[in-house]
């Protein structure tokens, strides 16, 4: 779901299985259960994922087609400006914090899944952590997505390795769930994307080999599709780390979202908390 020049982002309906798409770039097949946590099967609607079954079959994760709403490319102005003393800029459909100017190996954060109010059929918003995407055409992202499907909210977990389409995994996710996510470069051409729903009790660990990316940025972001947000509850990110340190330690830049006409859609707080490792993203307008 990134944005930056020449990049199409996240989100579309699912059809083809993801393994054909991902195999073309030499990615490791399958979602492995994290060794440090439970090993759930795909959740069914109404019951949490099992902690004893193996990784999901191909049918439990799915790629997307162009039928669904796509996330836009990032075409933002990289000049930085201060808003109320903060280092902030227009992120177009990105809201949150991004760090550049270093080689990045990890991005991580905790947050609570927000509820959304649907005023249209196709609006969507997603929260993710990731590497790259700011100034280059690759991303390694993992997170949660809230989508308005025919006026009703749906909640899904996903990961994306652009230019491949995002993959939706199918675990049980609900508003109020506590999430922990990490994107990690493990050396050579290997990455690990980990997502944990502490409330539902599942962990997903996607391990990738044969993926080459510059590792030029790290992000914790709330993103809209087509620059239109459904109304969402305020999202509070905590324990935000880039390369294992707090955002301010690497001069992270705050981003707020805007409409095509430049009207501000979200408000992003300054970093707060005892370690200055937390921030919030609040809805203003669609």
Regions with little confidence, pLDDT below 50 for 5+ residues: 2-85
What is the chain-wise order of helices and strands? HEEEEEEEEEEEEEEEEEE
Tell me, rounded to a whole number, the average pLDDT.
74
Report the β-strand fraction as a percent range.
Answer: 35-45%
Number of helices: 1
Biggest beta-sheet profile: 9 strands, mixed
Strand count: 18
Q: Could you estimate the helical fraction of the residues in percent?
A: under 10%
Quaternary structure classification:
single chain
For the CA atoms, what is the radius of gyration? 17 Å
Structural class: mainly beta
Strand order of the largest sheet: 1-2-16-3-13-6-7-8-9
In whole angstroms, the N-to-C terminal distance is 18 Å
What does the overall shape look like?
globular
